[in-house]
Structure formats: structure tokens, C-alpha cells
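Subject: Protein entry, chain in single-letter code together with its C-alpha cells

Area: Proteins and the way their chains fold up in space.

Attached in line: The record itself begins immediately under this heading.
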Amino acid sequence: MTKLVKSLFVSLFALACLTLCLFISACGGDKKYEVSIKVVNTAGDEFIFTPDVDEISRTFEYTGEDVWYYVDSYQMPDHPKYGDIWLEPMQQGYDFISMYGLYTAADGSTTEITAPALRCTNAKGRYAFNVYIPDSSVSWYGRSMCLYITIV
């Protein structure tokens, strides 16, 4: 009878441990979140890509001055701790946000615009800035967003 009780105790203990491990893995740890991205420019404009917005278009008058665009911050709206806080983006590691651009002149010619800050408005035309989060991110779901700036 003692062997049966020992065996039953060991089985119940193992089942309790397995249940606890499954509970912890289901509730915690490696959860990914939707992310909002805030792009700003040196003219004071903000462009916020919430999880339901992947494209923003704006038209500005030509001023002759350079204006720089860059990723200012990010937010994880559904995160229990950081949901309402805008955080500074990391520049390396698994959770990074990249941004690059393409300028299209009136004659149809194109020029790549590279990071870290992307300049435009020194010429009339259309600027397309791609903001990208890779699928390899450990904190966020991957996504691609586009900011279109037209200078007339």
C-alpha cells in the first residue's frame, strides 16, 4: 500500500508541476504586441501609425528649407505596463524600427533617401518613407507602414 501511495503522490506532484508550467507559458513571457509608431519632422509635425493605420499622406507647400523625418517613439497600446507610454526606439537588437525613403521628382526620376534621419522638402516632388518592423522582433508583430509627403 505504501508503494501505491508514493506512486500516487509522485504522479500528482508531476501533474501539478506540468499544470503550473502550462499556465505560466500561456499567461506570460513571450507575448508579442501590436505597436504604434510616431514619426516626426523638424517642422513640428507628427505622424502616428496606430495598429490600424499603415499609410499616411500629407501635402505641404514648398519652402526651400530642408525638413528631416525620423522615428521619434513607439507605443504598445495593449501592453499591461507600458500601454500609455511613448518609448524611445532601440537602434539595434531584435526590436528595432527601420526607416528609409524614396524621392520621386516631377520628371519621374527617383533617389533613395537613407537613415538615420530622412531629409526632404529641398525639392518639389513626392517622398515615400517606409517604416518597417521585421517579423523577427521579439516584442512586436512585424509590419510595414508608409508615409507619403508631397511637396508642391
About this structure: The chain has a mean pLDDT of 81. Residues 75 and 86 are 5 Å apart (CA to CA). The first strand starts at residue 36 and ends at 41. The first helix runs from residue 2 to 27.
